[in-house]
Specification:
This protein is of the alpha+beta class. The chain has one domain: Hotdog Thioesterase (Thiol Ester Dehydrase, Chain A, Roll). The protein has 2 helices and 6 strands. Strands 1-2-4-5-6-3 form a 6-stranded antiparallel β-sheet, with helices on one face. A hairpin with a 2-residue loop joins strand 5 and strand 6. The longest helix has 17 residues. The chain is globular and about 45 Å long.
């Protein structure tokens, strides 16, 4: 009987070796566990010093939903790009379906992010994303990704 092995976590430098994102747009702090090509779990420690809180909203800081979605997409991209055949490629955000925001994410929260890849068709991948804080759902969504060689033009 063999179980599907999981990898250990990744620190920020290991994440930067997989993803092209850099601060301030690298929105995951650590991968706590993952299985290449299948799923990844990450965390984002939300701090009052985040760049987006100065304008969203000045007297009631709330992490923008679109950035929660981006953090989920970055988590899914780690799962996709950690496959050997995707080394040195990028995963573009292809789309979002059924996004639902259930609770606010505020300074001091630890945002727990999970993305399970559900289907791949050539360079296109699909996943289920779930973001929680203290076990409460902050956001869930269906995400799509397009894997591309670095420097490849997209059609406009």
């Amino acid at each position: 009987m063999s179980e599907s092995p999981t990898m250990n976590g990744l620190d920020i430098e290991q994440i930067k070796a997989i993803l092209p994102h850099r601060p301030p747009f690298l929105l995951i702090d650590r991968i706590i566990d993952y299985h290449p090509g299948e799923w990844a779990k990450a965390i984002k420690c939300v701090s009052i010093s985040e760049w987006f809180f100065s304008g969203h909203f000045p007297n009631q800081p709330i992490m923008p939903g679109v950035l929660i979605l981006e953090a989920l997409a970055q988590t899914g991209a780690v799962a996709l790009l950690s496959l050997p055949e995707n080394h040195a490629k990028i995963a573009l955000f292809g789309g979002v379906k059924e996004a639902r925001f259930k609770s606010k994410v505020v300074p001091g929260d630890v945002l727990e992010l999970e993305c399970t890849l559900t289907k791949r068709r050539g360079p296109v991948g699909f996943g289920q994303g779930l973001a929680t804080v203290n076990g409460c759902i902050a956001c869930k969504a269906e995400l799509s990704f397009v894997i591309q060689e670095v420097g490849t033009e997209t059609s406009r």
